[in-house]
Design brief:
alpha/beta; eight-stranded parallel barrel; 15% strand; binds manganese (II) ion; binds zinc ion
Length: 285
């Protein structure tokens, strides 16, 4: 079974370099930040950057590319100023994806920061509707990622994702990205085949499996229900290999890109990616 397997790739020294890094370790799909993920500020993309990016994609054949939005953005913020800043930043993320022909933008729904879950969810949906209105004709699908539920982060229950999806206009512009580490951290026990099937059945009933457009394959440093977001190398954490085997072998996800966000050795990032990609490939045989 041929698979879309990849990893999150650095864009340092140029966006297009993510493709070269991906190619080097054998990715058929990659995830990137389209800007520095720890900064609000960003310069507009130049024609040259866009051209180089598209050229490198063509040359490497890596497709699809998945973008992940900045960690600073909180579309659920109860602080008016921060909320507006987040909305503007999210809009820029969407526009950059359109400019780069990136089909998916993964985002963490947001945090309620004490305002309460239902208010947070309402605000997130309003923010998304605001962004939709500003981007008519966009070809980018926004993927809500399930979260670990750290702090006041929303999106750790399937119900949260469903409620946001219910409240947004233009539903075809939305999908879901499932993160394996976050599932475990949020209390969904996918460590056994039976638990996996039960969890996905629950997801299907609440959100719908057809919404899943990307999967983040990460092991978890912490255990079931810990609500802590710490990724671990495949097979070295609390998730165990069975969960990954289930995701990889599931016919329903045959065409869904599966992307690592596992730790990387600063001195040899490619080696870390190769190791984790190989572990996934071994599960397929
Ligand atoms: Mn994420
Ligand atoms: Mn993730
Ligand atoms: Zn995470």
């Amino acid at each position: 079974m041929s698979q879309l397997l990849g990893a999150h790739m650095s864009i340092s020294e140029g966006l297009y370099k993510a493709f070269l890094r991906g190619k080097e370790v054998g990715c058929t799909t990659i995830q990137i930040f389209t800007k520095n993920s720890n900064q609000w500020k960003v310069k507009d993309l130049t024609e040259e950057e866009i051209l180089k990016f598209k050229q490198a994609q063509k040359e490497t054949g890596i497709s699809p590319v998945v973008a992940h939005d900045s960690y600073l953005i909180n579309l659920g913020s109860p602080d008016r100023e921060l909320l507006q800043k987040s909305r503007e930043a999210f809009l820029i993320e969407l526009k950059r994806c359109d400019q780069l022909d990136i089909p998916y933008l993964v985002m963490h729904p947001g945090s309620h920061v004490g305002a309460g879950e239902s208010e947070g969810i309402r605000r997130i949906a309003e923010s998304l509707n605001w962004a939709l209105e500003k981007t008519p004709g966009s070809r980018v699908m926004i993927l809500l990622e399930n979260t670990a539920g750290q702090g006041t982060n929303l999106g750790y229950r399937f119900e949260h994702l469903a409620e946001i999806l219910e409240r947004v206009e233009e539903k075809p512009r939305f999908g879901v990205c499932l993160d394996t580490c976050h599932l475990l951290a949020a209390g969904y026990d996918i460590r056994t085949e039976q638990g996996y099937q039960r969890t996905l059945q629950e997801f299907d009933g609440i959100v719908g499996l057809s919404r899943v457009k990307a999967i983040h394959v990460n092991d978890s440093k912490k255990g079931l229900g810990c609500r802590v977001d710490r990724h671990e190398h495949i097979g070295e954490g609390c998730l165990g290999l069975e969960a990954f085997r289930c995701f990889l072998k599931d016919e329903r996800f045959k065409e869904v890109p599966k992307i690592l966000e596992t730790p990387k050795d600063k001195k040899n990032e490619a080696e870390s990616d190769r190791k984790n990609l190989n572990r996934l490939r071994e599960l397929l045989t």
